[in-house]
Amino acid sequence: MTQKLAIFPLQLVVFPGENLNLHIFEPRYRQLIKDAEENGITFCIPTVINGGLLPIATEVRLTEIVNKYPSGESDIRTVGERVFFLEDYWKTYPEKLYPGGECRELLIDFNEDPNINGEIVNLTRAIYRELNIDKTIRSVKDGFRTYDIAHYVGLKLEQEYELLTIRSATERQRFLLSHLINIKPELREGKSMQDRANLNGHFKELVPPKW
Fold first, then answer.
1. What phi-psi label fits residue 134: left (phi over 0), alpha (psi between -120 and 50 degrees) or beta?
2. Which residue of 19, 175, 178, 208 lies most exposed, with the fewest beta carbons within 10 A?
3. Closest Cα to residue 35, out of 3, 5, 15?
4. In the predicted model, is pLDDT for residue 211 greater than 60?
5. CATH number listed for the domain at residues 2-108
6. Is the pLDDT of residue 141 over 80?
7. What residues contact residue 44 under an 8 Å CB cut-off, 6+ apart?
8. Is the pLDDT of residue 196 over 70?
9. pLDDT tens for each residue of 33-58
10. pLDDT of residue 1
């Protein structure tokens, strides 16, 4: 079964449970956020890579409008929820400025092995110590899951998207653990991890693609 959802394509990946802060400035997406605030609608963020719209997207829900500016722009907080496959894409949702699409929900296995997650947490903390990254990684006991660190371990955008497409909890853990084992902190991955950790919590001002 499919459902119609508003679409907000961006050059990033959103994971279930992720808190995403955005600066909204385009009129079409200002209208989308207004509808989310007033009518409680959710919207999907599909990933754009090299100008191409990829089909796996994460539904996000508006949780707070932090700032509203006289220009109509705003700073918002959202949270990632379900994962969808984009069956069809429309340049504009019916009677709206923003895009829309026909979406089919994908069921994600969240039942991750706590022992493997313990390895992932320990390895990540060790790498962070080596790089002097001051970022807290919650413990398995406190509910750690792989999505928690997906943006902060030096994955390229293409790799983050690949991780989002993995519906099996075990395969997702193996993917991340393999990446961590092969990280070379002194090279590009280390710099990427430091940069991403420092940006955590900022309001991202991203220019949505135009087709």
1. beta
2. 178
3. 5
4. no
5. 2.30.130.40
6. yes
7. 5, 6, 7, 8, 57, 58, 59, 60, 84, 86, 101, 103
8. no
9. 999 999 999 999 999 999 999 999 99
10. 84
Q: Are 208 and 8 in contact (CB under 8 A)?
A: yes
Phi, psi of 2 (to 5 degrees): -110, 165
- Rounded to an integer, what distance in angstroms lies between the CA atom of residue 46 and that of residue 106? 14
* Pairing relationship of beta strands 52-68 and 43-49 according to DSSP bridges: antiparallel
Helix spans in the chain (H)? 27-39, 114-131, 157-165, 169-181, 188-199
Asked if residue 123 lies in contact with residue 154, where contact means CB atoms within 8 angstroms, the answer is no
Token pair for 156: 């390229």
| Domain boundaries of the chain, sorted by first residue | 2-108, 114-198
DSSP SS3 for 131: helix
pTM summary value: 0.89
Q: Is 42 helix (H, G, I), strand (E, B) or coil?
A: coil
pLDDT, one tens digit per residue, over 173-194 is 999 999 999 886 655 555 666 6
Token readout for 100 is 């829309």
CB 174 within 8 A of CB 115: no
Q: Would you say 12 and 49 are in contact if contact means Cβ atoms under 8 Å apart?
A: no
Query: 121: which 2 tokens?
Result: 């947490």
**Does the pLDDT at position 60 exceed 90?**
yes
Residues in the chain: 211
Q: How far apart are alpha carbons 198 and 65 in whole angstroms?
A: 23
φ, ψ at 78 (rounded to 5°): -135, 165
